[in-house]
Amino acid sequence: MNPLTSPLLTDLYQLTMLQAYYAHAMQDAAVFEFFVRKLPPSRNFLMAAGLEQVLEFLENLSFSAEDLAWVERSGLFQPDFAEHLRQLRFTGDVDAVPEGTVFFPHEPILRVVAPLPQAQLVESRLVNLLHFETTVASKAARSVLVAPGKQLVDFGLRRAHGAEAGLLAARASYIAGFSGSATVLAQPLFGVPVFGTMAHSFVQAHDNETAAFAHFAQIFPKSTVFLIDTYDTEAAAAKVVKLAPQLRRAGIEIKGVRLDSGDLATLARNVRRILDEGGLRQATIFASGNLDEYRIHDLLAAGAPIDGFGVGTSLVTASDAPFLDAVYKLQEYAGKPRRKRSAGKATWPGRKQVYRRYRSDGLLDRDVVTLESDEPRGTALLQPVMRDGKRLHAPEGMAALRARAQRELAALPEPLKMLETCAEPYRVEIALPLRALAARLDEQSTAPLTV
């Protein structure tokens, strides 16, 4: 049993609902949509990510012999339930907003149309995948916006909430515009460039710092970036300068140094001066150590001569906004629109489309959420990606996803790029046909029953 692909990686109520649907022959087409109810504090937009993992999950959905054996011995279900599950495959349709697209509250970014048991079963894993990668991509995009032209590297694996989270964070942050990741497996799996320097333990294992630098350069002559804060940062920078002629005679050029602690702004200025005076003007300064978009913004605003940043814990945990109010809700069943009316959690019913409108200068103007059957009101964001359980297109390459994300961020009006909550949120209109449908359903629900 592969724990990450097993359909048992779900909430129990998904399986109990399947049992009930089968028992009562409720297998008509259902429409579910994934959307975010509201933005977290300090967020002015979100960036969609995780669709590729969702499509892979749906296309390969099946219960293994081990899965079915557990269902049978669990004692939770009727005797014939495992046989239903043995035949289950995803045969539905999916429409989605492409990865790398920015979006806003109340806008569905994924729609599933499938027989009700199938559409219900996949809820937990779909939310799990879309929620996490979207959360990380949205966090990463903020660093991309405050540090244009700077190298940004994901350093988060060791602090991620699990191995899969570390891998998917590397992918999501790269889509959003990061330069790459320190997570090695992200390269063969997703094509994410990998970066790394040296460990403090490597320096400590040597009797002196200069020997550590020299040994590292001999083994990695094309990636000589030295970690210089193990002891005294500025003294280590001077040692790098002194070592440079010896390495140059061996055909090795020092690429840069990394700072991982202390007053990074002051240290960067002093190290830059030492390197420049020592003839190492081409050597870059890379900083890490509990960084996030706020600290990066402050460092650059203070004029710190830092060329790149490693962002770890705050990225993979999205520390200031670690979750989204993201949901996957039934909007239509058996050809009839459905509307949840819970206080504070009411949904807009029916199959919907999101249309985007742009200003004359190419920047985002407003979005319109309306019924899929309504007339076009701009550029449609939801696109067909799967029909009858099969993808319509090959997976998009990472270069295409990154290019889209770059275009999307460039199209944001300046107030939406701020790290603080925008005084005037982006305009998302709920179109009149959609409002009218919701009102009609509400009226029907309160009408007296007739016999």
CATH class term of the largest domain: Alpha Beta
Q: Describe the biggest sheet?
A: 7 strands, antiparallel
Mean pLDDT level: 96
- Bin the strand percentage: 15-25%
CATH topology of the largest domain: nicotinate phosphoribosyltransferase
| Largest beta sheet: strand ordering | 13-12-1-5-3-17-18
Please give the number of β-strands. Answer: 19
CATH H level of the largest domain: which superfamily? nicotinate phosphoribosyltransferase
From the structure provided, what is the oligomeric state, counting identical versus distinct chains?
single chain
Structural class per helix/strand content?
A: alpha/beta
Give the helix level as a range of percent.
25-40%
The total of helices stands at 16
Distance between the termini: 53 Å
Query: What's the overall geometry?
Result: globular
Counting structural domains, the number is: 2
Q: Which ranges are low-confidence, i.e. pLDDT below 50, for 5 or more consecutive residues?
A: none
CATH architecture of the largest domain: Alpha-Beta Barrel
Rg, nearest Å: 26 Å
Q: How would you portray this structure in words?
A:
By secondary structure, the protein is α/β, with parallel strands linked by helices. Helix content is 39%, strand content 18%. It has helices at residues 12-23, 51-59, 65-74, 81-87, 116-121, 123-146, 163-176, 186-190, 200-204, 209-219, 233-249, 264-277, 293-301, 313-316, 398-410, 432-446, and strands at residues 29-36, 46-47, 93-96, 102-103, 110-115, 151-154, 180-181, 225-227, 256-259, 284-287, 308-311, 326-333, 336-337, 352-358, 364-371, 379-380, 383-387, 390-391, 428-430. Strand 12 (326-333) and strand 13 (336-337) form a beta hairpin. Helix 6 packs across helix 7 and helix 6 (123-146) packs parallel to helix 13. The mean pLDDT is 96.
